[in-house]
Predict the structure.
Amino acid sequence: MKNFIILTITIIVSFQLLAQKEDSLMLRKIYDEVLVQGECYENLRSLCKDVGNRISGSKNAEKAVIWGEKLLQSYQFDTVFKQEVMVPRWVRGEKEKCTLVNGTNNIPLNTIALGGSISTNGIISANIIEVKSFDELEALNSEEVKGKIVFYNVPMEPKHIRTFNAYGGCYPYRSKGPSEAAKKGATATILRSLSLKLDNAPHTGTMSYEEGVNKIPCCAIGTLDAELLSKQLITNNNIKIELEMNCKTLDDVLSYNVIGQINGKTNPDKYIIVGGHLDSWDIGEGAHDDGAGIVHSIEVLRTLKKINYTPNNSLRVILYMNEENGNRGGEKYAELAKNNSEYHIAALESDRGGFVPRGFSMDGTPSQLEKLKSWKPLFIPYDIHYFVKGYGGVDISPLKNGQTSLIGLVPDSQRYFDFHHAPTDVFENVHKRELEMGAATMTSLIYLIDKYGFE
Ligand SMILES: [Zn+2]
């Protein structure tokens, strides 16, 4: 009996070692393919240069859909299809103008309207009142704010090692700052851009107006201009800003999610999906946000097909439309998946830039998280070490059902907000090798989920 137990244990351990060996060879093969013959960098160049920036509902977004469909077809996946989705259409109009008038000279400030803002309807000329927090705004009486432009000068907190936490701290000033200021009678708001870098690239991003509150125009200025404005306000409280913005919201437009699929051999009706968002803001080229996530995700399926891996489950790459100002694509995908009773094992998203990958964050059950962590040793040779409980991503968030594990690729975040939603988010600011490391890391994870499941 004792010998039998020893023999059984030996056989189990041998099988585990064999599987580990097989997995580590497979990961090596995946990284080799992406690092030596990868196509994601060239695909990103094409998306950035041949299509360009692509806000939902625009001609360029339409071009991006065609671009994505063609590219997926060129890889000859089993199926390529689109899902119809109605998306919002917000247009910036002519370039915004913002001038600081201090009585001595007029200083032009590099300004950008926040996504969703109304226009200034001509030129607004008003005094400025600076606040560093909502508490400061709250402490002011309405007479002090009425008719003025509220200037939210709230720098991202540099103490956070993971810069998304610093972003999270400032995000409310962008999203609900205009309505909060309007409640006090403000005429417009100016936001210090959400970036840790000191430069004059203004960063846009979505905002929304609170129901029943007067809508006022809102824009952002670069961090250097924010410092300049703040400094001038110390010695001169009669500074005026002249602001002109022509943005508006038009009717919704028909657009699409674009999907490529490799059919599973054992469980064709079970899905593992990987994706990013195809739309971007209407400035720069949407290179890190989220061109990187798009080409990462396409590279996952391309690579697995190229190395002749036959998946057990069906694998999908999804190019979601309209993450930036609505998430209609993500919602539509989840709605159709539910209507069609599609079982999703896991959803992986890349929407934190094309920087060197550190690992993954997962929104899943404790046992799914344990399983994810058990694969960590396989990734150590590639310097991938971060496997934590956390957020998956905006596009995949509507799939949350307590069963599907939602996973986000976590790249190094130090420089992400230098480029996020700014004119500087261009192809040239994405590093080929860092981008490829991200794609190989995602491909490896999809392989492991496909092989071992996530039950
Ligand atoms: Zn994004």
Summary: The longest helix spans residues 2-37. The chain has a mean pLDDT of 96.
